[in-house]
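Table 4 source record.
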Amino acid sequence: MAQDKDLKTPNIPPLRFPDFTDEWKKVTLGEIGIGFNYGLNAPAKEYDGMNKYIRITDIEESTGAYSEADIVSPNGKLSDEYIVNNNDILLARTGASTGKSYLYAPKDGRLYFAGFLIRFNVNKANPYFIYTNLHTRNYWRWVNIMSARSGQPGINSQEYSSYPLYIPSRKEQNKIANLLQLLDERIATQNKIIEDLKKLKSAIYDVVFSSLTGRLASLGDVAEIIKGKQVNGEFLSDDGEYYVMNGGVEPSGYYHSFNTPANTISISEGGNSCGYIQWNNSSFWSGGHCYTLRILDSNIENKYLYHLLKRREVEIMKLRIGTGLPNIQKKDLAKVSVVMPSSAIQNKVISLLDSIDNKIKIEINLSFLFLRQKAYLLSKMFI
C-alpha cells in the first residue's frame, strides 16, 4: 500500500505499464475537478421525447451506466445549469446508494440530473481514469467512513471534493483509462449477450408452451408440495457443502446437512421473492420459507415440470397474499394447472430449453471472469 514520501515508501501501484516509473501524486477531487453542484429538485414525469432525467435509481448498480429501463423527464422549469455534459461525473449523495457514480456518455442524450446527485466536471485529469478510481476498494472504504456519521448515510459536495486519491502523469492515466474502458465495453457486450439470450428463452417459452396439448391436471395432483424446515441463522455459515434456500433467489447461508436431494424443484414460499421457481442441481437444505416438489405422477418429467412452472413464474408470484411478509399458500399453489403431453414431447422440450439454459450459464460464467479481471486490475493498478 502506498504511503507519503516521508515514510520512504514510493507512491506507485503494484502493477503498471513498464514504460512508466514516476511516482504518483496525491490530490483531491476538488483539485482536479470543478463544480460539485447539486441537481434539480423536481418530480419526474412521462418522457417528453427529448429531455431525460437521471436519478440515483437510474444509475445501474453493477455497471454505473445510465439505465433506459424507465426513461422519464423532469417536471419543472428546465435550466441549462442542470444539464450533464462531457467529462461530468455524478455522485449519489444520500441513502443506501451513497457513493455510486456515473460518467456522462454522449450516447445517453440530453440529461438533467436530480437533486440527490452531485455533479463535478473533471478538468485536470482523464475523466475515465477518475471515474474508474471511484470503483476501487479505497474509494468505498472512504465512502463508508464518511457516510457513517448518522442514521441516514450521506456525503455532501464539500466532502466529496476532499476525497483524496493518487494520480500519475496524464499519459499514464490515458493508458490505464483506455485499457479499462476496453474491458468495460467488453463487459457491457457480454451483459447484452446474456440479456438477449434471456429474451430468446422467454420467446421460446411462449411459443413452446402455448402450443402444447395433453392431459390437464393440477400441480397438487402430480407432485407433493413439501414445506421446508427452518434453521436458525446462528447455525448457518458463509460457505459449506449444502446451501440453504429460504424464501429468496439466493441461498441464505450454508448448513452441515441437507433435507432435499439433488434435481429438485424449489418454490419460494415467503418474502418479496415468493413464487420464485428454481431448479436445484445439488442436494440442499429447504428452509421454512421454501416449498419443494416431489413427483407423484410417473407421466410427468421432473425437469419438464420445472420449465412449465418457470414459464408461469409471474403468474405464480401473483398468488401471494399479505403485505408485511407476503407468502403463497400451499392450497393455492396446488391449484396451478399443468399440461402433460407425451413423454417424448416432454423430453424434446427439456432438451431444447436446457440447451438455452446451458448457453446462458456459459455466458454468465464468462461475464464473471471479466468482472474478476476488472476487480484484479482495480486492486493492482491504482493506489
